[in-house]
Structures are given as C-alpha cells and as structure tokens.
Amino acid sequence: MENQQKRQSRETKNISVGHDLHQFDYSDLLRWNKQWVAETLAEDPDYFKKLSKGQNPPILWIGCADSRVPANQITGTNPGDIFVHRNIANMVIHTDMNMLSVLDYAVSVLRVKHVIVCGHYGCGGVLAAMSHKQFGLIDNWLRHIKDVYRTHSDELEKIADETERRMRLVELNVIENVYNLCKTSTLQNAWKQGHELSVHGWVYSLETGIINDLNVSFNSDEKLGSVFKFDAK
Known about the structure:
alpha/beta; 5-stranded mixed beta sheet; 10 helices
C-alpha cells in the first residue's frame, strides 16, 4: 500500500500539478505514460507481468462518470482491485444493457463479493435533474433522477436549504439505485445459488475527499417487495 501511495503521489505531481491540461498536447499523455511505466518498473520490475496474468477483483464499482471521482484513487487501491462501471449520476437502470452486461460479468464470471454504488455530492447530473432546463438527449437519462425526486418529494420539499436538498437527493439517488441492483435477476440468482455477495451505497465528498457510507447494504433479497422477487432459475 505504501508503494501504491507513493506511485499515486508521483502520478498526481507529474500530470496534474504544474500542468495546464487545457493547453496540453495529446502527445503529452503518451509521454506521461512512459514516465509512469518507468517509475512503476523501478519499484517493481515484474509489476506489469503480474498484472497481465488476469484479474480477480473482489469489488464492482458503479460510479459517476465525473472526472473527479476515480474509484482507485479515492479508495487507495491498486489496478486490478476494482472492476468499474461509470455513467452519468451512477445509475442502475433496468434497460441499460451496458450496465447489465458489466454486472453479469462481474457477478457470474469474476465472482465479486461486493457491489458498490458510489455517488458524489455536487453531482452535475443530479443538479441538472432538479432544474427545469433542457439539456438535450441526456434529459431522457435524467428523468430517472426526477423519478427519484418524485418518489421522495415529501421529504425533499421540507428541506428549505437548497444545498442540503441537493445533497439529500444525491443520497436518495444512490439508495434507489442500490435497490435497483437488488431487483435484478443477476443478483437474485446469485443469492439463490449461495454466492456471498453484498451491495452497498456510498457518497463521496469532493470538498473533503471522504466517503460517506449511507448504511444501506444488502446481502439477500429478503427486504425486496414480493413483486420484484424472481422464482429460482
């Protein structure tokens, strides 16, 4: 872990600190890649050989596509530790074949033990969903967040402070998407087959770097409404 932290510190220094990424040439990325490889090999000459032998991550991360919320960096983990799917506002939508394919592969093939839905305070998707503006094609995606607001409107509209209301909707959006995960046949079949698998909901703070565990975790479908439960396959 110490070596990983040192490596992450250097990566941040090499790429972010002292560089204006809005004015860089794309070839700089290739140069930084070579520098990162050289530094990594200096610490562990077999690093990439070991990494290339395969992956066995214990965690599937469903997070926001926001560039400020990279799963490995904010959890202090290594490449190979977390299988990652990201989209706008960390959504679990039952018609999203991309997300469902990632979920099925992670659960059925990689046999992950934890699935984490991680949102973040200040999420642009959530803020957009709370507005009345049209943004284009993404409006159809944001409608799912509007449905979360509608479901919890009594609670949300009692919150007078706009910032606090936005923060709470971020949390409720994560909670609803944790439930959406539990409703999938992929997770229900895994639980029926005795797969040791838990689902969790987290929210990351951009201002502090701290992850807030919402304490919404499941390791079975016991708390699901009966209408969502599938018979054994």
